[in-house]
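Incident review: delayed structure delivery

Summary: a single-chain prediction request sat in the queue longer than the usual turnaround. Root cause was a stuck worker, restarted by the on-call engineer. No data loss occurred. The affected request and its eventual output are reproduced below so the record is complete for anyone auditing the incident later.

Affected input:
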Amino acid sequence: MSVDKLQQNTQSQEQLSDEQLEGVAGGVDFDQLRRENLDKDAVDFDQLRRENLEKDAVADPAQ
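Output delivered after worker restart:
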């Protein structure tokens, strides 16, 4: 399916009300999941920065 056709199908679909979304979600707190994922992403980026700084220090000990 082409991207244009997919966008048209998505735009033509009816929006769900908050009550309908709650029924479909089965009680899942999506806001909580988003916060948890953001926290995980932040931790991962901090860890990557530390690892890269350590690698740079080993690769160029003159710094």
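Verification: The radius of gyration is 22 Å.
Action items: add queue-age alerting; document worker restart procedure.
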